[in-house]
Amino acid sequence: MNVIRLQDMKTARIVALLAAPLIAASFITLAAAQSTVTTSPVVACTADAKVCPDGTTVGRTGPNCAFVCPGADTSNACIVPQRDLARGSRSSDVLDLQTALSEQGYFTAQPIGVFGPMTLRALIAFQRANGVPQTGFFGPLTRAALIKRCGTVPPISNNVRIYSITPVSGPVGTEVTIDGFGFTNDNTIHFGTGVIPHVAVSGQIAIACTTDPSCVGGIHQSLKFTVPTGLNPACFYSNPRCMVLTRQTTPGNYDVTVENSNGTSNAKTFTVTGETSGSARIDSISPSSGPVGTTVTLQGAGFSPNMILRFAEGSVPFNALSDSQLTFTVPESVGPYCAPQMMCAMYMRIVSPGTYDVYLQNTDGSWQSNKTSFTVASGGSGTISINGLDSPTTLPMGMSGTWTVHAAAGTQFPNLHYSVTWGDENMAAQAAIMAPPPSQIQTSATFMHAYSRAGTFTPTFTVSDDAGHSATVSATVTVTPWY
Predict the structure, then answer these.
(1) Are residues 370 and 305 in the same domain?
(2) Distance, CA of 391 to chain centre
């Protein structure tokens, strides 16, 4: 028994010696875990700098890597990025955006400067709560909403500065000169929520910097721009379908800043006064009726050669005699108006007798004048006769059919013009038309078209002459599906 107890005691001693390191290691691991939980992570801030209102320069500090100026109220302060940002962006601007969204309660992760899914969800939540289109794109509208929530202004680069703008007020169309330094040959001028891209330096001179402590390098530079009729967002120039609408420039105060590779300048204010170009007004039209080819005069105010004169669904060229008078000629045919950089269905329609709206607008249609009307007269009857129409009665879907119109003209206006409305323009505006070859008397015209959906359609053919006389003919065709 004694021998057995001695062996047991030796075994217990060996187990205790072996267990002691394991127990100690456990305590060390637990202590390390507790230390990890209670210790704040160390954040490496980027080496950016900001010029404070008092002229001092500060860097990013604190757990959120924020700029803190002397005497600043940091209870609701955040830095709002000046660059447009989208998913996939990686920069210090993304870090600013994440920090600002975090301080507003929308971003719950650690800001790292990478625009990923969490940033996207936080940005959409912020847009939803602040009445901004929920695109997940950080652009002018979201920037303005974030500035309003933060109560801060964007960081200013000391490498770009505006001394003055001349004049400081005026209507749309006013040429403005920006004086300052740090400009390049590719500047973006921010005017309110819109931008004017790719503005080059218009002039520069060497000056003495003794009286202005902010003057750098002894160079005084100038930029020139024209107060725009509409405020195009920055994304409009890289992606015309950026889902941010162009807004009309109305009377009011607008911040003006310059952005380039050197940074973003301080802001100056320009006041848009009086009537803008979007306030064009038509007072009278003379004559108010007549055949195709009639010269028409509009009287009013605010006319400009840069405007678009709309006639019916299309636009017509005009001659701006002054800002209160213009003339145009009633066209033989019109097509749908297509704004620049837009994809539109292109087709032409004969201007047949009837009443048409006439008005002015800008290129993107964000404003328009009042409307007046012009009545296209037939100029008589019996000058055009349609002698027949060769037309298919049935047609398989997707297969081209052929229609031939036979007509005769009077001797006074023998030249005929042909057009057609197929009835499926909203579905497929790519109708293939074989117009007749030019000749003095066009007694027939052949048209070809393929319908993209089944159904019953009634294509209508119009024949007109140079005086505005017209005649129509139609026929019904049944389009059958493929089985």
Answers:
(1) yes
(2) 45
- Structurally, how many domains does the chain consist of? 4
Q: Taking the model in full, what pTM does it have? A: 0.33
User: What's the DSSP call for residue 66?
Assistant: E
SS3 assignment, position 301: strand
Residues 6+ apart with CB under 8 A from 267: 153, 162, 255, 256, 257
CA distance 183 to 224: 12
Burial of 322: CB neighbours in 10 Å, binned 0-12, 13-18, 19+: exposed
Residue type, 42: V
> Per-residue pLDDT tens for 229-285?
778 777 777 665 565 556 777 778 888 989 888 888 888 889 888 654 446 889 899
Q: Which domain holds residue 327?
A: 280-376
Gap between the Cα atoms of 65 and 458, Å rounded = 69
Contact 62, 68 (CB under 8 A): yes
Residue 50 and residue 58 in contact, taking contact as beta carbons nearer than 8 Å: yes
Give SS3 for 33: helix
CATH number for the domain including 177?
A: 2.60.40.10
Whether residue 167 sits in one domain with residue 268: yes
pLDDT band, residue 388 (cuts 50/70/90): confident
Q: Reduce the DSSP state of residue 306 to 3 states and report it.
A: coil
